[in-house]
Amino acid sequence: MASPAAAASSHLHLLLIALLFLPFAAAAAPHRHRVPSRHLASLNASAPPTTFFEVDRPIRPPLGSVGPCSALLLSHSFGETYGRPPVTAAYAPPECLAAARARGASLALAVLEWTADCRGRQFDRIFGVWLSGAEILRSCTAEPRATGIVWSVSRDVTRYAALLAEPGEVAVYLGNLVDKTYTGVYHVNLTLHLYFRPAPPPLTQHADLIVPISRSLPLNDGQWFAVQNATDVQSKSLSIPSNTYRAVLEVFVSFHSSDEFWYTNPPNEYIEANNLSSVPGNGAFREVIVKVDDHVVGAVWPFTVIYTGGVNPLLWRPITGIGSFNLPTYDIDITPFLGKLLDGKEHDFGFAVTNALDVWYIDANLHLWLDHKSKKTVGSLIGYDAPALALNLDSGFSGLDGKFVTGASRHVSATGSVKSSYGEVTTTFYQRFSYVNSNVYTNNGTVQVVNQTIDAKSGVFVKDTSAVLLSEEVHKVFPLYVYTGTSDQVGDEYSLISLVKLGINEKSVLGGKLGFSYRSLRNAQSARGTMKVKKNLVVSGLGKTHQVYKYVGTDGCYFRDVSSKNYTIISDNSGDSCSKGSPSSGVKFSSNKNQPARKRLLKL
Ligand SMILES: *[C@@H]1O[C@H](CO)[C@@H](O)[C@H](O)[C@H]1NC(C)=O
Ligand SMILES: *[C@@H]1O[C@H](CO)[C@@H](O)[C@H](O)[C@H]1NC(C)=O
Ligand SMILES: *[C@@H]1O[C@H](CO)[C@@H](O)[C@H](O)[C@H]1NC(C)=O
Ligand SMILES: *[C@@H]1O[C@H](CO)[C@@H](O)[C@H](O)[C@H]1NC(C)=O
Ligand SMILES: *[C@@H]1O[C@H](CO)[C@@H](O)[C@H](O)[C@H]1NC(C)=O
Ligand SMILES: *[C@@H]1O[C@H](CO)[C@@H](O)[C@H](O)[C@H]1NC(C)=O
Ligand SMILES: *[C@@H]1O[C@H](CO)[C@@H](O)[C@H](O)[C@H]1NC(C)=O
């Protein structure tokens, strides 16, 4: 993540998600890489554009639904947009939405589609889309090539039904800079697609009200909060309707600049002992803490999204990194705390990041369910347990070589009851996290190997005096392995080898009055690449990526096994059969015996 000089002079924390920012661990050689590269620029500019994509399962309209009815929300070319106000457009609910309601139909599915093209040379840029202050998409742009690229991102936004039904404002912040070198302008269309079912909405499915916990316009930035260090707490005070009976916080998170590769950061002792002024530190553990007043209500141990310029940009062309086009969000059920919040007064919703370095972009949407049959609900917090983070570091190094093993765990649980026209309902929400990160430097600090696993379990149990109404358990595991090594350094030229494996393994089981559902996802990428760098430009290189995506759920199945090499898809198999015979999951990576000796190392 380098920053264009123009940006660097303005605001350090606004450093864009640029390509890579890979200072050498070696004190003598602090390199910042800026790809787009020369060889990419020399391609035949009249060749057809390349389509970039993130592997995901298709969003399927529910059986029996009709649509889509589509509305263009915004169309814009993002050129000189860095540090400028977000681009906005008035939002009016599409007429088909009111018409559907009038005939007794209801929203079955809403999909937000971002389509974009770009040509030339440009960094990867983080961007956000907000509707009436509530974030509805966090994403990263694809890096263009001389011949042009196109890509699209679709996100299921049905859970924002309450917002979609009201007039408001769409805002997009995508901070881009264009000059003689970085020529890419992002041309974007943002479209909403709606599908309807011929029946009224199922009760309680989606929130009645969505309250943004974000910064209000006008701004010369995104509506996200920027958390810049370990003591920085960004917060917003607000009051909630007195007839709320359920509340869920949906948190958006992305990390940039000094913390873009937080999971590879060494401890500060190592940096100080080796006088590595350009290597970001604070160790390799990060978590987002969410507080309501003085209570830690939950945490986010984020998936390690690698943006389209990360590690080696050639890895992510055209298959982009998991989550990079559609960053995951994280739900924290705060219903147990309604007893504290239903007093009509303002309460403070705050975000902090343990060990943070500049910068984390965080905001949230508070989804609220309202009791239409009463003016006032009454809650009480029955049980609450949130012990401090357990964090330990096993550290040993000599000069630039060393091994650091970091372990962490956290547990939060809360139980509370709410009396409403639905009776007295008790909700328990818990989260249980564990984490281990091994960071090993060898060959005089020129090879770095990071192996990390985040394990996050959470659950919601809802019961009234006679029965269990809902029981949901979610288990997520995020494995990550990053090898980086440099070799053949002569002056300002060197070679970089990188190997990245990352994945999301997720299982959830939901049962209750409305039925039973099960979801299991195994999504794994294995990517390796080389590049030759000269004077901070990639002069040649090659990236190969293999991804296996396997989803099995009560709502259907999806499988895809796809490989790319040097911008080209070399194999692609997919299917949506739920049969047992589909190919096995998980990416296998056999280490290449021909890999050159690991001589020098670079640090992400
Ligand atoms: C290790 O790297 C440092 C910094 O680049 C250099 O000064 C030193 O000579 C290297 N040591 C060896 C044994 O190569
Ligand atoms: C550039 O690509 C176009 C279309 O692929 C082709 O017709 C043309 O001959 C190419 N030009 C050169 C100089 O390679
Ligand atoms: C945006 O929509 C316009 C009008 O339909 C179309 O000409 C243009 O190609 C679209 N651009 C993208 C990036 O989809
Ligand atoms: C942390 O960030 C906040 C917000 O930018 C700033 O006010 C504060 O001085 C910073 N603290 C340290 C220790 O750098
Ligand atoms: C540490 O680095 C700074 C700047 O990079 C340099 O001026 C200084 O001499 C170095 N100190 C040691 C002890 O290597
Ligand atoms: C990463 O570490 C885990 C154990 O913590 C191990 O099972 C796994 O094989 C390691 N991955 C790699 C690629 O070395
Ligand atoms: C990668 O593809 C380009 C054309 O798109 C070709 O010119 C180049 O030689 C290829 N590189 C390798 C290492 O295969």
Automatic annotation (TrEMBL):
InterPro entries: PNGase_A, PNGaseA_N
Keywords tagged on the record: Signal
Pfam families in UniProt: PNGase_A_C, PNGaseA
Ranges for region Disordered: 575-604
Keyword Glycoprotein annotated: no
Domain Peptide N-acetyl-beta-D-glucosaminyl asparaginase amidase A N-terminal residue range list: 67-386
Biased composition (Low complexity): 575-586
Signal peptide start-end: 1-27
Protein name: Peptide N-acetyl-beta-D-glucosaminyl asparaginase amidase A N-terminal domain-containing protein
